[in-house]
Each structure stands twice: as structure tokens, then as C-alpha cells.
Design a protein that fits this description.
The structure holds three protein chains of three kinds.
Chain A lengths: L2 H44 L2 H6 L6 E7 L6 H9 L6 E8 L5 H9 L1 E4 L12 E7 L5 E6 L4 H11 L4 E5 L3 E3 L3 H11 L3 E10 L4 E3 L2 E4 L6 H23 L10 E5 H7 L9 H15 L5 E12 L5 H21 L10 H16 L1 H17 L5 H29 L6 H35 L16
Parallel strand pairs in A: 1-2, 1-6, 2-5, 8-12
Antiparallel strand pairs in A: 3-4, 4-5, 6-11, 7-12, 8-11, 9-10
Chain B lengths: L2 H53 L5 H11 L5 H11 L2 H13 L2 H8 L5 H13 L6 H7 L5 H12 L7 H11 L4 H8 L7 H13 L3 H4 L23 H14 L6 H9 L3 H14 L9 H4 L4 H11 L8 H7 L5 H12 L2 H12 L4 H16 L1
Helix pairs in contact in B: 1-2, 3-4, 5-6, 6-8, 7-8, 8-9, 10-13, 11-13, 11-14, 13-15, 14-15, 15-17, 17-19, 18-19, 19-20, 19-21, 20-21
Chain C lengths: L6 E5 L3 H13 L3 E5 L2 H10 L4 E5 L7 H10 L6 E5 L4 H10 L3 E4 L4 H14 L1
Parallel strand pairs in C: 1-2, 1-3, 3-4, 4-5
Helix pairs in contact in C: 2-3
Classes of the chains: A alpha/beta, B mainly alpha, C alpha/beta.
Chain lengths: ~475, ~375, ~120
Amino acid sequence: MSTGQVFIIFYSVFIILYFLAINLSYLGLVVISFFGIKKISLAEKIAERDLSFKSSFFKPLSIIIPAFNEEATIVETVRSTLSLRYPDFEVIVVSDGSTDQTMEVLKETFSLTPGFDNYRAELKTKKLNRIYRSAYYPNLVVIDKENGGKSDALNAGINISQYPLFCNIDSDSLVDTDALLKITDLFVKDWRVVAAGGTIRAANGALIKGGMVKAVRISKKFWVRFQIVEYLRAFLFGRAGWSSIGGLLILSGAFSVFRRKAVIIAGGYLTNTIGEDMELVLRLQRTMKKIRRPYKVQFLPDPVCWTQVPETYGGLKTQRRRWQRGLAESLFLNFEMFLNPQYGTVGMISYPFFLLFEFLGPVIEISGYLVLIYALAFGLLNWPFVLLFFSVAVLLGVLLSTAALLVEEIFYRSYPKLKDVLVLFVFAIMENFFYRQIHSWWRFLGLLDFIFKRGGWGTLSRQRFNND
Amino acid sequence: MDPFLTILIYSIYTSSAIILFFLVVIVFLRWKAAREEREYKLCEKEWEPLYIDYILGKSELDYVKSQFLKTNRYKFYRLFFTPYLKMLDGKDFEATKALCREISIIGHYRQKLLKRNLYDKATAAKMLGDFRCYQSIPERIRMLKSKNHLLILAAAQGLAVSNNPRAFRPVLKALLSNTYFTYEGATEILSRFGSEICPPITELLGEYSKGFVPAALNNPRKKNNAFRSLLPKAKPATVNHTLLVIILIDLLGHYRYAEALPVLNRLLAKADTETIVHILKAYLRIGKLPAEYDPGVYLKHEDWVIRNFAIQTTEMAPDKDLIPKLDQLLNDENWWVRYHAARALMAFGDAGHSLLILRADGSETESATIAAYVLASKEVS
Amino acid sequence: MTVTAKTVLIAEDEKRINNLICARLKQEGYLVIQAFDGEEALQELLQGKADLALLNMMMPHLDGSQVLKRLRNAGRELPVIIFSVKSWESDLRDSLFLGAKDYIVKPFELDDMISRVNKLITEQ
């Protein structure tokens, strides 16, 4: 046998072992998260939410909304944010050098008056032009600043914020009424918590009225249905599982709350990375470790943030490419966590998992397909074996996806129509037949982006958020 | 046959079977939930008028009790009664509780408390709290020593509303030493104890204020140390005197315990920044100021939060002499301080109001802006 | 002289509590309009049939303070009692500032609620 053929065989074996490893890990996560969610459900039943709201003993919150050219939607976003159910909070809108009528529309609707604020710029940001307050709502602040990107806008918001906790809500997201209270409750009940997040769900197709999701329905759009199943799996198993063993690596930027002081010590958001939310959570953990402050990063599956997910092939592709690149950047900017026992579960288990399976996953999967096909073509492996193997691979994936639906049904039952759940079940099966493969391809492209575009970070002029 | 192939084939069979099983379970759970929902709605329809008549005094307890027992659907009791238990107080609450006692719900949860299952114990503790049950106290105090955070929380919450001040110290101790609660979290639970805890707290703080020498408090040889039994063997970073003291201050403020004012003012003199904030907040909540309190020094404090609260205390006792000080604060570096200073001036009657108008047209931008802003907001609302 | 029955509107999203309050008010001789969210409450109040309103602060769609604000802006002067979950007095002061005549803190006693309602109705 030639060395080439030997290599092929070895690589095939490697692929099979890799596959076993990844699936066993996921199955492990599933089991862990089932018990984790069960425990959280119990905690939720015990929590005295009404009394918490009634009490004067909660942590006030600053909500930061970065905006760039959002004249059409910003008023609605601000209005619905101002009417969130939370005892005491401030809303900080940061117009990141908008060139349209965003500022004018805000000035008019909320009766903004300019003020001078001497605040200590604990984080470095681009220049702030003016800070406004609303005559109607003293807890509404609007910052007009030079364009610097989303991270820069967030940092400016953090500088101005006066409360111990802050959260970033994207302008196209809707947070559930009680969601914030549930998340900040984590900070009240445990002083170690420095960051906490909730679940993201697809708002596409849901009935939204008055800034609230009134009826939960699944979208009719093909690509959205895959994402619904995907998000369920990622959050119910991924996040919940990691959170319950104290190994949560990342939180979703769209819906996470942070302890302001901790973030400032860590240095705020980085402006030269695409995955700024992921990166912050990683760096936050490193910083807390360095200053020897006990810390916790937590996830709650129950509070939901609804967001519009891409509905087209193109939109989804761009988004996932960006995410993969963001993940890569976040991982490598915090590489010292890799297999570093100092960082406990996160360093020894989560980080390697993400590096090996989430980051390298697409590469191995794509090369795996190529190698296996090649091996088949050249008769190095018999095709019944490969076929069966592939079937098992797909079925295990389906198992995971459908298990997510089952857990969803047991604990949350968010989709009232049985028909919707059955449709999702079908999509959970289909997801593993070609969505997953396409997804790997997109992620592979994202990885290439990361490798080849690394030099091109810099500061992008006139950055938009939410390109997709 | 190749063993690998066999494994693969069996894996395929098993996986497919499990997937189908999931589908069946999902559909089954749905069906079951729908059925329970229907059942519950029927129960509710029957129970609601019975309950309303009972509360309104139109039916007797015995009759209502027998009607409830007749339907024999105890699994829905909790769902049915919880909103009423949460919303009602006084006579109506007691009536609801009496009914629940008669149909054995309370007894049921008292039994459940003794079970080993974590879920059972925790929900039982919570429900006993909802019922404001003053029995099964020892068992719940024992739960406070559990290693499970959830049990401690459930027990603490339930004990807090049980009307038993004797449980105060164990709960305080448990919250501070066995959990990672912030002071807000602990105070929130403790605040449910009721105002009977105010006199002993005031006494404790009184002793603390007289002998404020932090090192001595930990001195085991000091005999009259009121805090000694309270200071638990804590996880070192979480408990220090400030935490304990501010929790107690917050509670006094929460209950607007005016008798504590002299003690608070004594504490104020030697307090650290965090404690000062809480004492001032307490004054605001109590709604009265101690006779010897002078906001002057706090209006000039370097911490803006303290300046902020100090300004708000001036609104309670508008003293003309403070007007110049507030005037200066219109130019403070912090927006909120300027804002509250302007608002406070509004409370100072004509003198304050006219000063604001003067400043609004004045040459100094900061005071002008904030004066104009507050005057405008007043019109808007 | 016959006294015409007065109408009270109760805006509370918790259905059974709403029903209970409604029953108690009826027992006292009032006519009752039930609303289960802020929008419904506002619509009914703007029609002008109610002599007094009991408003829950935290309601879906339109919360109590919004309803109150819009009501006053529309020139409706009927007395309003708000149900508040918050017990901190300064927040309640703000609500009174908004135009409510009285407030009831949850949990509450039905007799207490009735006496407040009676008081405001007779004051009119």
C-alpha cells in the first residue's frame, strides 16, 4: 500500500474517532442539561417574582441601545424598552454617528434637551458630540457620537451608565416582559455572577403587537424553521448544559446582562473584532481570574429575547460566516485559557471543546467527506460500511435535535399549536440531511475569512450593525 | 458479519427507535396537557363561584369545604388558590387560609416538608410560606442548614412570612454564611418578616454605634457583644460588618421605623461611604429626619451618590440656609446631582423657585441648562 | 329620592382576582365594568360610563400609569384608585401626582378597598 493510501485510512479512522468524540460529548451535554434545566425549573417555581418586583431591594439596570441609521425603527424600539417591566432602569441610546434622521426623530419624539455631562470616561471611545436627556423621561439618555462601530458605541454607553448592571439590547430584538427581572435576579442572589444571559428565539412569524410577542407561531419560511430547531438545541443543550457545570464560555450579545464594574476592569468591548460579545465574556472570565475575584457566568433558559433571524439563504450564510469568524477571533484573542487549569472547567473543558469541535469542526467535516468519498472511489473502504456510518451520523444528529424538542415540550411548551411542533419535528430530521452540511460549508468559509482577513480588522468607517 | 457493521446496524435501529419514541412522548405530553387543562377549567368553573360566595360571606365554611372535597381534585388546589393567597390580606387571607386548612392542603404540605426529595421539600417550604404558616418552624429552620442553595432559599422565604421573629436570626445567619446572596437579596427576604424585628435590630445597632471599634467586634473575649451570635463563621470575602450593618439599616428604613432615627444618626457620624448611603436612604424612607442631622457636610461629599441622597433629604426639611448650598450644586459635575438639586429647590417654595428661574437665564451653562430642564419637566407633567 | 347606582371599572389582568373584586363591588351595590388589560380599560373609560376606576399598575399592553396619563390628557376627571405592588412611598407619590386619588397596596383586604371606593364616590 502506498503512503497515500495509508494516510487515507488513518485519516478515515481519525474522522470516525472525531465523530464519536463529538457525539458522545453532545450526548453528555444533553444529559447534563436535562438535569440542569430541571433544577432551574424548580428554582423558578420557588422564586417569588411578584415580591421581588415589589421590593425595593433589586439591582437597577442600564439598558444600552446602540443605533446606526435607524430612523425608521428607533422610536418603536425606545418606546418598547421604556415600557419594560423593571422597577428601576435607565435607557441609553447611542447614536453612532448616524447620517440619517435618527437623532432628529428622537429629539422630536422624546423632547430631548442637550446637557453637559462630566463623566469619567473609564473606557476609551470615539468622541461624544452631545448628550441629551428627555423632558418626559429623566431615565432616557441619548448620546450622539462619532462613528466607531457597535463596540465603541456600547463602551460609550457603559461610560455614561450609572447603575451596577447594564445590558445591551439590539434594536431589532424584543425582550419578554419578565425576562430582565429573571436575569438580574441571578445577580441579586449571587454576588459572584458577572455576566448572565437568556435564550434567543426567532420572532419571525410570531404575532407582535405593541412591542410584545402576543402569539408564538413558527414562521412559514423554510430557512427560519431550521434555525428554530437549531436555536432550541444550541440554547437548551449547549448553553444550559455548559452553564450547569460552570463551563459557560460565551453568551449571546443580543441578550446578556453584565456587572458594570467587572466589564470596566476587563476593559470594555474590543473594537477590532466581529464577535465582540463572545470575546468580552471570555476576557471577562480571564480578568476575574487574574484579579482573583470569584466569578460566575450563568445562563437561564426561561427568559426569552425575540429577534428577527435571516430568512434567506444569502442572509443566513453571511450571518454564519460572520459568527464563525467572530468565534475564531474571540478564541484566539483569549488563547491563554486553552487547557489552562487556572480557568477551571472553562479552560480545561469548554475552551478545548469549542476549539476542537466548533472551530475546527467544519474543516474536519468537509475534509472528512472528501476523504471518505476518495477512499470509497479507490476501494480503500467498502461502501456498505461508509453508508451505514453516514446513516448513524445523521441519525445521531436527528436524535439530538429531536431531544431538544422533547426537552422544550417537557419544560416550556412555547408553541401552542401541536401542528407547529410536528413541523419542527420534521425539520429536526431534515436539519441533519443537508442543512447541517451547508452550515458546515458556511462555517468553513468563515474560518477562511478569519485566516485570510485577519489583517483587515482596523476601524471600518461607517459601520453598520446587523448587516444581515 | 463484520462486527463494525453489526454495531452500526444496531445503532441505526436503536437511534430510530429512540427518535420515534421522542415523537410519541411529545404527542402524548401534549395530549395530557390539553386534557389536564380541560379538567382544570371545569374545576375552576365549579370552584370559583363557591370561593367567591365564601369570601363574600354568603356561604359557610363547612358547606364550602364539603363542596371542595366532593370534587376530589386536590392536584389543582395549588393552582387555584395561589393567586388569592398572593393578592389578599387580612380577613380575606385568613378566610382563604382557613378553607385551605379544612381541605387539608396545609397539612399536606407540612407532611411533604418531611420528605427526603429535594423537589418536595422545596415546594412544600414555598407553599407553607404562601400560606403564612406558623407551624413546622423547627423543620424549616433545619432546612436552613442544608447544603442545597435552593432549599435554603425556599426555607428562608417561607420562614420570613411566617410571623415568627424568632426565625429572624437563623435566616439572617443562613443567608449571610451559607449562600452567596448580595445584601439586596438578603434584605429582600428579611424584609418579609414584619415590623416586629425593628426593635431588636435597633437595639443591636445601638450597641454597635456606641462601641464602634471594628477589631473589638471580633474579639471573643468581649462579653457584651450583641453581634457575636449573629456573625457567622462566614466565607471570608462575603461577610463583613458593613454588609451586616447595611442590611439592618435597610430593614429599618423599609419599615419606616422612626424610633431608630437617633441610633442611625449616631452611626452616621462614623460610617463609611457605603453605610452613609444606606443611612441617608433610610431617612428618606422613614420620612423624617433626626433632630441633630445636618446635611451640610454630606452635600459636599466626594461621592456623588451621597451628595444625591443628601440633597433629597433637604426636601424633607426645607431650610432657607441650605439654598446657597443647593445653588452651588446646580453646577456639580454629575448630572443627577444637578438634577436633584434643581428639583429640591422647587420644594423650597418661592425662594427656591425664583432662584431657579434666575439661574435658567443665567450665564453659567450647566446651572442654566439644568434649571431650564427641571422647570420644563414640571410643566410637562 | 332614589340614588342611581354608580359604576366602577376594575382593570386587573388576573382574571379570578378581577372576578372576585367585581363580585364584592356588586355586593356593595355598584355596577361593574370589567377590563382585563390596559387598552380595554382605556377604551371603556373613554366612553365615560364609569364613575370610578380601580386600576392595576402592572398590566399587559398598556400599564396603569399610561392609562391614567391618557385618561387625564383626554380630560376625564373621574377618581382613580390604583393597585400598586410597590410599597415604597415615593413611587406612590408619583402616581398620586399623575392623577390618582388613592392607592391600595397589594396584598389588600376587600373591605378596605370598599371603604376607599365608598369614600371617593361620596366625595364626588
